[in-house]
Write a structure and sequence with these properties.
The complex is a heterodimer. Chain A is of the alpha+beta class. Chain A has nine helices and six strands, in the order H-E-H-E-E-H-E-H-E-H-E-H-H-H-H. Classes of the chains: A alpha+beta, B alpha+beta.
Chain lengths: 209, 242
């Protein structure tokens, strides 16, 4: 699964978008993960992860935190999103200290993410590099829509719904923040960055007004 | 399978904007789901988008429709790989699995992504092209698509599936670094022969500065240097060092 890898948008916009993932490996360290997962959640909450969730139950923007915690099982996958590089540094430092032994991945702009690793005293092991979109690119929707829909790599955010949100923001029926939150609820993993989405929606509105 | 109860449907058209692949339309004043286009992602069902509760999930009986649903709905788990979503760990656990060793490169081809969807006939074209170029395709224990292949060495898929539609599905494999150029050339050629898009990821071991020889190979091929990546920070244990 490479669902956090290919997020679209300008470098400036992507500077406010870092995904964190906790990932247990099948047959190696995938048993009795609940307590370790709760440690990840505790750190994410301290650092201020704007959205996070477990694909098996749902994201924080839809469910009470305690409910997500209670439902954690060995097939759970915990992941979330930060909006600042400083949060990534703090998160990595705290997780490193806990020595949980579970794989940790940060998906984001390479320059900033590698700087964060260095500041946290970590040596990257492996990188999956995004080489972009190939094939019939003329089929893709406009960039503003793509920069929002690709924040759920499983594509649970329908482009038609993003268009609808843009129109409602433009008409003043809904605020960019409300629209961002509504869209975030469609991403079951919790890696949708509603803060960045609302910025895009607000900018799109002001640009076109 | 996702279907509309025509008795309950009021024809309000609310559902139309919620389908990424345009499988829902209005016919004779009622919504209908085109089974040929629907990927069984269940966005329309899970999010309870219908005010009349007319969209419902009916039992999925065939293997291929179950497979289609499990791959397209990230809340499901692929049994053989044990991984939710599209069912692969790829580089995310490489610090403990060692799937990609030094001198190797992992290739992840996200077919149909972002958001366009793909038919297996196009997936097969790409899989066969990269396999011929030297990519060693991952087996069914690590990647779901392999369950549909009749020959892992060639990337050939079952003959009865060309028109099965997915929101996205991943072709995964690895090769020695010195084979990557021929794999990229094959992709450059075959990308013109498909009716969809794909997103490409290249996974490899890196040094402390995040450098990988993959970046030099990309330069030779005139591909822009990547600005985004997914960094495994090496906190998994026991740590694989080779």
């Amino acid at each position: 699964m490479t669902h956090s890898l290919h997020r679209s948008g300008s470098i400036e916009s992507l500077r406010g978008d870092y995904v964190w993932l906790m990932y247990q490996a099948k047959g190696i360290n995938d048993k009795n993960i609940k307590e370790k997962a709760k440690e990840f959640i505790a750190v994410a909450e301290v650092v201020g992860s704007e959205n996070w969730g477990d694909v098996k139950s749902g994201p924080k923007v839809c469910l009470p935190v305690e409910e997500i915690k209670n439902k954690i099982g060995d097939q759970s996958r915990l992941r979330g999103v930060f909006t600042r590089k400083g949060q990534v540094v703090q998160f990595l430092r705290m997780i490193k200290e806990k020595e949980l032994g579970i794989s940790v991945i940060i998906s984001g702009l390479l320059k900033e993410t590698l700087e964060a690793c260095k500041e946290a005293g970590l040596t990257p092991h492996t990188i999956n590099f995004s080489l972009g979109v190939w094939g019939r690119k003329e089929l893709l929707p406009q960039e503003e829509i793509l920069s929002i829909t690709t924040m759920c790599g499983h594509h649970m955010i329908p482009p038609g719904l993003v268009r609808e949100m843009m129109e409602q923001v433009k008409a003043g029926k809904i605020s960019p923040e409300e629209a961002g939150l509504k869209l975030a609820k469609f991403c079951p993993c919790g890696i949708f960055n509603q803060v960045r989405a609302s910025r895009i929606l607000a900018t799109c509105f002001s640009t076109k007004a | 399978m996702a279907r509309v109860d025509r008795e309950l449907c009021t024809g309000c058209e609310n559902c139309l904007s919620y389908c990424s692949v345009g499988a829902i339309s209005i016919q004779e004043g009622k919504a209908i789901i085109d089974e040929r286009l629907c990927t069984e992602c269940y966005v329309c069902i899970r999010n309870e988008i219908c005010p009349s509760e007319a969209i419902e999930a009916t039992p999925i009986e065939s293997f291929i429709h179950q497979f289609q649903h499990i791959i397209s709905d990230p809340t499901e788990t692929t049994a053989q790989t044990g991984v939710p979503g599209r069912g692969t760990e790829e580089a995310k656990t490489n610090d403990v699995t060692g799937r990609y060793k030094k001198g190797e490169v992992g290739v992840c081809i996200d077919m149909g992504r972002p958001g366009i969807g793909c038919y297996l006939r196009d997936v097969e074209k790409i899989a066969m092209a990269v396999a011929e170029a030297g990519l060693i395709l991952e087996g069914p224990e690590t990647t779901p698509l392999a369950q549909l292949m009749t020959d892992l060495k060639t990337g050939k898929l079952r003959d009865d599936l060309p028109n099965v539609h997915f929101l996205s599905i991943i072709i995964e494999g690895k090769c020695p670094l010195n084979t990557l150029l021929s794999v990229l050339k094959a992709l450059k050629k075959v990308e013109k022969e498909i009716d969809t898009v794909f997103s490409l990821g290249l996974a490899s071991r890196v040094d402390e500065k995040g450098y990988s020889p993959v970046l030099d190979i990309i330069k030779q091929f005139d591909i822009p240097q990547p600005i985004r990546g997914k960094v495994n920070v090496g906190l998994g244990r026991p740590l694989v060092t080779d």
